[in-house]
Every structure is written in structure tokens, then in C-alpha cells.
Write the C-alpha cells for this entry.
Amino acid sequence: MDILSLIKSNYYFQYAEWSRDHKQIIETDLGKRKVYFWNDVNTLRWHINWRHRLNCDAFYVDRMLVTKSGQLFIPFEDGGFLTCHDVLEKRAELEGNERCWGQFIGAMLNRSLVPEARCLSLLKDKLNRTLDTFEYMNAMEPQMNAGEFQAIKHCIPKVWERIEIMKSLVRETKPAYIPLTTELLPLEKGRWLSGKLFWEIRQAAPILGYRSFCDFFNHWLAMTNQNSLISLIETVDEVSPLNRHANQLLAAFYYPDEWLRMFDAIRYQRQEIQVLYRQFANEWEMTSRTTAVFYQFLKEQGYVL
């Protein structure tokens, strides 16, 4: 049985045809639907449970549609599985809708926390990766021109400064819980449905830690302005009081992910070093701006000193 016949026999569609514009979209008598294929049943079940945990009145997610037999997926060939999801096209704007987005992020924080005994070991692994980049940088010196090498080397004191701040924040917190969520980018995955935010989780892999939230706030500031970010944070704080997350969230902001991304790209020669350095500098500046806004808000609320 071909895929479309399988879908029509298991879901309440009178007809279904593949969209010409998108290989995962089908056109049905009930509107457009998106089809996902899953090779790993554990990943699929995690996604089903994650969507269930996010179920609330404040926003919607791209739930798995129920089959005629009451299941959320259907077996596919070679041991795989297939799911169908709603499709919406009206993009959710950012500015002016900070409350809707803030409720969404607050709920993600509340519902993603899991006991994590490896918090400190994960931090140690990250620090070791950073140390490895310093060694790699010295080995790369002969392959860089003098200007490139000095520009990158000039950043090391700033990288160390952020690492030391991050380490002090983690020592103060001694975290026992950490978010396990999915990627929160791009922000264009947000849609509107009946006046509420609709978020496409898609098939994103689970991510452990606060970094996905930092990336979300960074992109929000890049696409809006400081006042909009503050309004967003205020709503997040109402839904999920940030005193519970303050130090860990700040620690994630201070961790030099931008530095590691640059060196991974240099190592695999993805782009010219000058281009990668400009990207790094722009990302570093954006994170610094977002961190400053967050820190000021947390300080004003009495969550940090």
C-alpha cells in the first residue's frame, strides 16, 4: 500500500494528495496536513509525551492527529511510523504579542524541568571543550594570517571572563533540575490559531539545558527591541518565576557557545575565517546585549545580587 492510501485508510480524509509546494504536506478535504516519518519509536514516544505535557489553554502545539482506531501514529514499512499534524500558515508576530509568547516560554520552563544529577558533569564537559579550542587555536596559527590569528587571540580574555562568571553562578546554585525541551528556533515556527499562539515542535531532538531558551531570547531581541524583550520577560516571570531559574539561565548566557561554534566551523573549514569571525563577533555582541537586559531585570526583582 502506498503512503497516501495508508493515510486515507487510517485517518478521516476522503481524499489526500501531496502538495506541489512542500514534500511533507498533503492536501485533504479537511485542509492541509503535515506528515512526519519516524524511525525510532523511543523518539516518537518522547514527542508524544512532550506534546501531552505542554497541553494547556494558553497556546497550542502541533499535536499528533488521532487515527480511526484511536492511535496517534500508524506503523510504516521497515519498522518505522507515520504521524499527521495540523498545518497553519498565518505567522505569529512578535511585537505586540509579548504576553502570548511569554506564556508559551513560561509554560515551557515549568513543564520541561527534569531531575538531573549530571548538571555539574555537563558543565565540566563544556569547560573541557573550551580548553580544547585554545589548544586547537595554537595549532592553527600557521594556517591563519597574522591579522586573523591576533583578532581571535584577542577574544580569549573575554571568553575566560564569561567562563569564570558562569562557574561562580553554578557554584552558588548547585542545580538539581535542568530543562529537557526542544529547540525554540526559528521563531517563525509560531503561528496563530483562534487568537492563540500555535507552536510547531516538528521533529526537533530533545535538548538538555537552558541554552535553547537563551537562543530564543537572543533572537527575540535581534528581531524586535529592548522594550519588547522586557515585556516578554515580565510575562515569563509571571508564569514561571525566574528566581527559580536565575543563576542557571544567566550561566547559560555566559557560557561561550559562540566561541565553540566558530571553532567547530574553522575545524571543518565550513567558511573563510574572516566570515566566521564576523559571525562570532555579531553573535557575541547580541548575547552580551540580551544578558545585560536579563541581568538588570533579575536584579530589579531581587533574584540576583
Remarks:
- The longest helix spans residues 273-300.
- The chain has two domains: 3-86, 98-300.
- The two ends are 64 Å apart (CA to CA).
- The chain is about 50% helix and 15% strand.
